[in-house]
Amino acid sequence: xxxxxxxxxxPLLGTVRISGAKNAALPAMAAALxxxxxxxxENIPQxxxxxxxxxxxxxxxAEVELGYGRAQHRxxxxxxxxxxxxxxxxxxxxxxxxxxxxxxxxxxCGNARVSLPxxxxxxxxxxxxxxxxxxLLGAKINQEHGYVEASAERLRGAEIVxxxxxxxxxxDLLMAATLAEGETVMQNxxxxxxxxxxxxxxxxxxxxxxxxxTAKIRVRGVEKLHGTKHRxxxxxxxxxxxxxAGAITGGDLNVxxxxxQHLDALLEKLHEVGVKTSCRGDSVRVEGxxxxxxxxxxxxxxxxxxxxxxxxxxALATQAEGTSTITxxxxxxxxxxxxxMVRMGANIKIEGSRAVVRxxxxxxxxxxxxxxxxxxxxLVLAALVADGEIIIDRVYHIDxxxxxxxxxxxxxxxxxxRIGEILPKRRGSGVG
Length: 432
Ligand code: EPU
Prior knowledge:
Elements: E1 3-7, E2 13-17, H1 22-31, E3 39-42, H2 48-59, E4 63-67, E5 74-78, E6 86-87, H3 89-92, H4 102-109, E7 111-115, H5 128-136, E8 140-144, E9 147-151, E10 159-161, H6 167-178, E11 183-187, H7 193-204, E12 208-210, E13 217-220, E14 228-231, H8 236-248, E15 252-256, H9 264-273, E16 276-280, E17 283-287, E18 297-298, H10 310-317, E19 322-327, H11 336-343, E20 347-351, E21 354-359, E22 364-369, H12 373-383, E23 387-393, H13 396-399, H14 405-411, E24 415-419
Parallel strand pairs: 2-15, 3-14, 6-7, 10-11, 18-19, 22-23
Antiparallel strand pairs: 1-23, 1-24, 3-5, 4-5, 7-9, 8-9, 11-13, 12-13, 15-17, 16-17, 19-21, 20-21
Helix pairs in contact: 1-2, 1-7, 4-6, 5-6, 6-7, 8-10, 8-12, 10-12, 11-12
């Protein structure tokens, strides 16, 4: 199992380029199931969740070409012959977002069999709202042996009001509604930029969607969708992670190829913390300093402060003067990174859904364990300011969603390397 070995203390300097958004690419790949024609997606990040989605689609009989580097991080997906509209437990258990195929499959094939995702490191994360929405669209649902089976000759438009805001739930039902008969109106939808990106793609495929990116989405169902080409938006969570890396190391970092408008909540918070940021075109420059102020954070749905950067912000809070309270409102168990930071010397107390971080505390060498994707990123950030060597175990989590993170960090001055197993430490050996 791979580990990161990080030696902190270097300010990050230079330019880092942001990849395409994993959480926009996953539903976009699922959307290809809605048509017989090829869908070409560009700016696909080279991360493990994309490879899992490739396998998922290929197992159903889709032809998926995936090329990186000179091929411009592009995938071409053709779902002309779908042999089995099924997502197996083997794949769903490694990536919950596999459930995104449920809506498109039942809409296009008339039936789908998708494993229920089961437990998750950050909270219960049921998919009851996806299922309830599909029922409203006229699907017959049967749940047994850990699978959801959905069937409908043709889905029909409906009024869907989400009891709770759900990102992939909105995406799943949005895709299903494109091929339903008649009009669907969805209320209390998620407003994340990834939803607007998916709607852009679907509209290019011939769908009739209005209002994506707002709480109310209207979809006029069509008979058929066709192939198209679409460029995935930049990854706002990767961008936020690098902005926080620049801030925590007191660096001067240009985070390029992102969309600063997607980062408002973070940039406002950093202003409160005393970190200077400036936006120009598709870049954010972050200039860190040694005098950070504590500032409270509450995670919310977009456009609020994202739960996906709560852990990384906590690393920064350990280096701010005073007490920061971080309230996690989206998931019930997303503080696993806090105890690992405590092992590095941080002063953090968990009180239910709140973490109270008292700073500024020096962080120093320890072996720590990554529990999920964003927790791994937060431990990397903490390690970048620690004294001595930090070893982060289970970095396979980070490979799910960050493209070449160690190479990108090394290029701007971090001392980070990946090892397959811990080797006996030699005197004077550094990391580079
Ligand atoms: N929820 C329900 N029932 C449902 C669906 C959701 O109760 O049917 C609850 C969840 O348990 C949670 C809340 O609603 O408490 C919000 O969950 P949501 O459905 O919005 O999360 P998701 O769609 O499963 C996506 C991202 C996550 C991100 C969340 C919140 C993708 C592939 N995943 O998950 O990303 O944290 O939205 O913004 O888009 C990550 O990238 O590290 C990651 C976890």
